[in-house]
Amino acid sequence: MSKTRHKKIRLATAWLGxxxxxxxxxxxxxxxxxDLTEAAELVYSPLADIKELPEGIDVILxxxxxxxxxxxxxxxxxxxxxxxxxxxxxxxxxxxxxxxRNRLDLEDLLATVYQEGPGKISQQDELLPLLLPKVLPLHQxxxxxxxxxxxxxxxxxxxxxVTALLEGRPxxxxxxxxxxx
Length: 181
Known about the structure:
The protein is an alpha/beta fold. It has one domain (9-101, 131-178): NADH:ubiquinone oxidoreductase-like, 20kDa subunit (Rossmann fold). Helix content is 30%, strand content 21%. The protein has 6 helices and 7 strands; from the N terminus they run βααβββαβααββα. The protein has helices spanning 21-27, 32-39, 69-81, 90-94, 106-115, 155-166, and strands spanning 9-15, 40-44, 57-63, 66-68, 82-88, 131-136, 146-148. The chain is globular and about 55 Å long. The mean pLDDT is 90.
């Protein structure tokens, strides 16, 4: 990564419906995270205690599928506030495991989990965001600029993509890095 850059890139990560495995893999960049801090300022992430998505994000990595109204709202904010939106991992790119809910009847699911279970809450209690009728990959909700596949993507794949993005180059992943799973 070039160390001659004067202005740091405003980098963000977001977590929608998924397991956080992509963020764990991001942390597996290990000492490369120190190199990353020289080129980028982390302005929003579940890895930091930042509550509001800021304006003017240069690059954002978005993990997870869009499963509820909170995810939908955040995805729309992400697109309007970010120059480059990256679908980060298989859930964001395809729906993956999160979209297994699509095979279930939503009303039966809600009744079994929330109304018959020990908590007995409903979608109208405003404790929970409303579930969307179907879980959607990110690109079916907002335009996405780059895809990083993997469940989760390995650190080398993440590093290759992030390095290219921070240096203003197109993301070109090797054939092995373009595989899902």
